[in-house]
Amino acid sequence: MPRRLRIAAGLLALGALLVFPLVFTLPFPRHVMIMIFLYAMLAQAWNLLAGYCGQISLGHAVFFGAGAYTSSVLVKQLGLTPWLGMLAGALVAVALSQVIGYPVFRLRGHYFAIATIAVGEIVQTLVINWDWVGGARGLFVPLKRPDSFLNFQFHESKQAYYYIALGFLLLALWITRRTERSRTGYYFRAIREDQDAAASLGIPVARYKLRAMALSAGLTALGGTFYAQYILFIDPESVLPLSLSILICLVAVLGGVGTLWGPLIGAAILVPLGEGTRVFLGGTGKALDLVVFGALIVLVSVIQPGGIMALAQRGRRRTG
Amino acid sequence: MTVEVLLQGIVGGLLMGCIYALIAAGLSLIFGLMEIVNFAHGEFLMLAMFSTFWAWALWRLDPLLSLPLTAGLLFLLGVATYQGIIRWILGAPMLAQIFATFGLAVCLRSAAQALWGADFHLVRDPWVQGRLSVGGLYVGLPQLVASVGAVVAFGFLYWFIRRTETGLALQATAQDRQAASLMGIHTERMFALGWGIGAACVGVAGALLTIFFYVFPDVGATFSLLAYVAVALGGFGNVPGTLAAGVIVGLVEVLGGLLIAPALKYVAVFAMYLVVVLVRPQGLFGRF
Predict the structure, then answer these.
(1) Strand pairing class (B137-140; A233-234)
(2) Measured between beta carbons, which residues in chain A are less than 8 angstroms from residue B37?
(3) Per the omega criterion (within 30 degrees of 0), is the bond before A204 cis?
(4) Which of A123, A295, B119, B228 is 20 to 30 A off residue A98, Cα-Cα?
(5) Stretch (H or E) spanning A307
(6) Are A144 and A151 within 8 A, CB to CB?
(7) Which residue of chain B is at minimal alpha-carbon distance from A307?
(8) Closest residue to B264, CB basis, from A125, A250, A297
(9) CA-to-CA dists, residue A266 to A162, A252, A306, B217, angstroms
(10) DSSP code per residue over B265-286
(11) Degrees to nearest 5, angle at CA A158 with A154 and A161
């Protein structure tokens, strides 16, 4: 597509997204869209570290949880506005990412992936046993009436949540685009392709891995705060489980890792599938939709490991 | 804390560690053969336990009696997994390999939940029950039988790999796929066999666990995490190393529970693993 056409298409899509909540006023379609934005943003954050820099983390729930817990505890204990809590959460996540990353980045491949699982399990267990943040019972974010921007609560209509989530997604896309085209992005990809070769060319591998981790963790934490303010309840089972870490990667993998649009495509497919089957299969529990999920993941991995983006690119190459 | 409690804990940890080792052995074997981590390993264990449970519930077969059946079923499951999924992703990037087995794990676990519900099941009145008292220490007989069984199975596996011709062919394939195939070894068949045996190990471990442990769809999660830690601790692909690593995991779990807090026993295990790989990134007995 020529550049001008692409810009026009992009503006059109953005316009459509902006009017969406004005057309669809029911809570459910808005909720689905919010979840798509949230998961696309989380998957994009993961993608920055795993897709571009090649470090496959299976413990990203730690950073999501850090964002959710930090802002919620600050609201509850100090009455601090979640907007500042969100920044604090991002800082906590970045700090955590450096503490975790420094040792774990010495490991490669499967050792790295398993170590990140181990870190995730440690953090979840510690929070379960940490009474000050609610322990296993979790934490209710105090409900504020009426809705206000300062309180980050908009429960009368979910419209504001919609635009905030969309904003976060655009932020994640923008950061990824900037990174992609910067020296940092090239370093990331060099490390992904061959970290020894990258080191021999003078790239400070350890420093750039930590940078990727910080960027990824900070963005993930923003998502965590958003989730806490949207649901108003968090516990270790909902914001820190291994299954969340995996779901985040799945979204990116299905869409296509190491690409700008992959995570968004993955979220646009997986989230409605998940929410839809949950609603339609209702009482049977979460199991049946996850059977479909699982089978889908296996299929994508076997048939097209590059995800849907790779499929689209192959199609484009064939047509012209 | 008295010395008895500590000793009691150490004995329990040793026994449990033997079972962890057998679970981890299957994982390690598969990794050594083709550098793929089976993230559905815990779900294989869960299926083995359900198979044992249903053999008891439907036909009143004791877990020890249905053990060969379960091992055989899991062998077939392993081979089927290789033929249906793994064979197609041998050359794929690591991410695809991780998610192929992850997807399988999600699928199997949720299928189990859809089919059998999330309830806990227990085989009541197994042949072995009760406990032994040795010099003031109590040892649960089911646990003892299970870990002796695990050690026997481990020994058999080791003998098979090291002493039989097929085992040597497996080793050759693990070392150099191309050279092995030039020597007339059917490497594809060796891969399938490796998956079969790896899953059969979990089959035996699952059947033995069912004597004294609850069966439910998520049961594999904890065990498989501990198995990954054991495999990485022992050094990927090093089958004898996993025996030591499995026992270490069992011991740290119990001692962590006793000395720190029961709720934090897995934290102790994972922290121990992180400390070890910090010093030796390739694991305790790893070559590379």
Answers:
(1) unpaired
(2) 110, 113-114
(3) no
(4) B228
(5) helix A307-319
(6) yes
(7) B96
(8) A125
(9) 19, 6, 12, 27
(10) HHHHHHHHHHHHHHH-TT-SS-
(11) 75
Closest CA to A260 of A2, A4, A6: A6
Of B93, B95, B277, the CB nearest to A107: B277
Chain B residue whose CA is closest to A299: B100
Cα–Cα distance for residue pair B33/B139, rounded to 1 Å: 37
Q: Where are the alpha helices (DSSP H) in chain B?
A: 3-34, 41-59, 63-84, 94-116, 141-163, 165-175, 177-182, 187-209, 219-234, 239-259, 265-279
Note whether A298 contacts B85, CB cutoff 8 Å: yes
DSSP letter for B92, please: S
| Residue keyed to tokens 């958003």 | A226
Q: Hunting for tokens 């040597």 — which residue is that? A: B168
Question: Can you tell me whether residue B133 is helix, strand or coil?
Answer: strand
Contacts of B9 (CB under 8 A, 6+ apart): B254, B255, B257, B258
User: Hey, is A92 helix, strand or coil?
Assistant: helix
Q: Which of B58, B54, B27, B22 is nearest to B195 (CA)?
A: B27
CA pseudo-torsion sign A123, A124, A128, A132: positive
Residue B100 contacts A where some CB pair is shorter than 8 Å: yes
Q: Nearest by CB to B107, from A106, A113, A295: name it.
A: A295
Of A56, A117, A301, the CB nearest to B103: A301
Interface of A with B in 34-63 (CB under 8 A): 50, 56
The residue type found at B4 is E
Q: Which ranges in A79-204 belong to alpha helices (H)?
A: 82-104, 109-128, 159-181, 183-193, 195-200
- Asked if residue B79 lies in contact with residue B196, where contact means CB atoms within 8 angstroms, the answer is yes
Question: B145-188 pLDDT, tens per residue?
Answer: 999 999 999 999 999 999 999 999 998 898 888 898 898 899 89
Query: For residues A158 and B285, what is the distance between their CA atoms, to the nearest angstrom?
Result: 55
Q: B19-73: per-residue pLDDT in tens?
A: 999 999 999 999 888 888 899 999 999 999 999 999 999 999 999 999 999 999 9
- The tokens describing B105, both together, are 């794990």
Backbone angles phi, psi at A134, to 5 degrees: 100, -10
Rg over alpha carbons for chain A, rounded to the nearest Å, is: 20
pTM across the whole model: 0.87
